[in-house]
Design brief:
alpha+beta; OB fold (Dihydrolipoamide Acetyltransferase, E2P); five-stranded mixed barrel; three-stranded mixed β-sheet; 6 helices; 13 strands; about 25% helix; about 30% strand; globular
Amino acid sequence: MKEKILITVKTYPTLSKKYAELVCTAGVNDTGQWRRIYPVPFRQLNSDQKYKKYQWIEVDLRKSTSDGRPETYQIAGPLVIVNDPLPTTDYWRLRREAFINKVKIHEDLNTLIKEAHDNKLSLAVFRPCKWIDFVAEPVEREWDAEKLAALDAEKRQGRLFKDPETVIREFEIVKKLPYKFSYRFEDVEGKKSKLMIEDWEIGALYWNCLRMNKNDEKQAMKKVRQRYWDGFVQNEKKDILLVLGTTLEHGVVA
């Protein structure tokens, strides 16, 4: 089926033996129904297919047969970018009209988790009642060696790409983030949670800040916190909402 999807989620790439890298992409159609488009080897797409967040795309989709989450679909035909990303002017008016005003906004995590356990949903917009902190924790700095070795073997045999000679020369595995970024917050019932931020943008921000601060990680982390805590959460002019999602491997973690 062909649908028009407003992209609202694009995660930082993770490794995949089959696709080299995967990006979890999600959005809503023009009636506000969630669509997770997975798998997407995003950085291997043609340049005219590399969509941005809050950009409309037209794409043929089919329901996933390997992923039982209700919103998950696979690309079944051409993908076309319709227009430029919707602007943020006038307090996100166009983005709110196309996205926020069309979806349910959850405030009770227990109710949301139950619906996810029952496989009624695996994507949702959530509004925290109280923000507690922005957290950065060090993690393993390199990708798993076995996965990298397997990917290298697959690349050399030309199994990962349609045009191996061209793509292998240009394609490099994305750098692994050395930190895990999370928000801590309370829901309307006082339930405290810490959820990892997996958005592509926070990864790109970290690497940009690191480069601009001459590889000073302390300063880079300070800049990331300034954006995601001071600039977003502590800004009274902003209404911060989170898009929560489950993973295929691990499902829902309460």
